[in-house]
Design brief:
By secondary structure, the protein is an alpha/beta fold. It has 16 helices and 15 strands. The protein has 2 domains: 253 residues, TIM Barrel; 55 residues, no CATH class. It has a 9-stranded mixed sheet, sandwiched between helices. It has a 3-stranded antiparallel sheet with strand order 10-11-12. Bound molecules: iron/sulfur cluster.
Amino acid sequence: MKRPLELYIHIPFCARKCLYCDFLSQTASEMVCHGYVEQLLEEIKRQSEYYREYNVVTVFIGGGTPSILKAEDIQAVMNTVNGNFRLERNAEVTIEANPGTVNQEKLEAYLDCGINRISLGLQSADDEELKTLGRIHTFDDFLKTYQRVRVAGFKNVNVDLMSALPGQTLNSWKATLRKVTMMKPEHISAYSLMIEEGTPFYDRYHDHPELLPSEDEEREIYYAAKAFLREQGYERYEISNYARPGYECRHNIGYWTGVEYLGLGLGASSYIQNFRFSNTADLDAYRKINMNGDDADWHLHQNITELSEQDLMEEFMILGLRMSRGVSGSEFLARFGLNMWNVYGKVLRKLQENRLIEVESPYVRLTDFGVDISNYVLSEFMFDK
Ligand code: SF4
């Protein structure tokens, strides 16, 4: 049987840089974008030769803003993937898009080339908050884009939201949730804003945390989301992800459950056969690689790390516990040949006594209190903490 593989394809271009963003993305001319895609196609062809014994189960075209590329560029990427990898018949194929960057022609092209899920970066339904974040769109732009996405025929739509924003109140967050759920997307992601070094937000807020919602307010916002979204038919299946039954993101679940993934494009990370590595994050260097040359992989892949059995167990616990279903002792045994309670018994018992995890054999999962302080709980599973 072929092994499952997930593909992540990185498009590192945006119309403008948001003020909080430290992702690998930049503005670029049409010519630069097109040149990048040409090189990406060569990389896809080259890498596919190593993955003949794999079945691709999910593809995620992320960024940046993939939807700023021309329709034919995205089609070329998907045609090259389809022509060179073995894609499962019902593979989940997602593209990230920002409001205001897609038209009917692009959406139809996406569907034509096998993209069956679209993830819209909204972040907030409040125009003031969007302006503060430096987003290029308004809520109205989102509504128009959403409508186009549905008219084109997309049946699986995610909306990305962001909480703990400067100036955000519990009421404005509830209003965002209300407005978004009225549109009935199949999936909602709701991450908290992180203040990352090197961004304008870092300069503005790092020394002024009082301008951001407090930790208590953040928790209130989190609980409001969980309760309201459940009422609306969305179950929280991971700390920050909610879905209608059957619409959980397969690509992300793969990350959290240890499915191998190959990253293609600038800076993309991979996890293959217990090795982690990432592509060069230098656009000029990436564009200069001769993808047909013998030394292409040497120039392309960086930070190659072999994960030990201990590393893999840590990841299994830390990523698995992010999911609401938790980690399964049977899966641990099948994967490592060891009893999870023999390896982590002391930690598990301590966390259970403190009501941070609950056990429903063979599953162990975080309690609500455990989710509240998940950073602490998850760090308990590191061998060298
Ligand atoms: S659209 Fe996304 S990737 Fe692009 S700058 Fe904004 S947050 Fe960053």
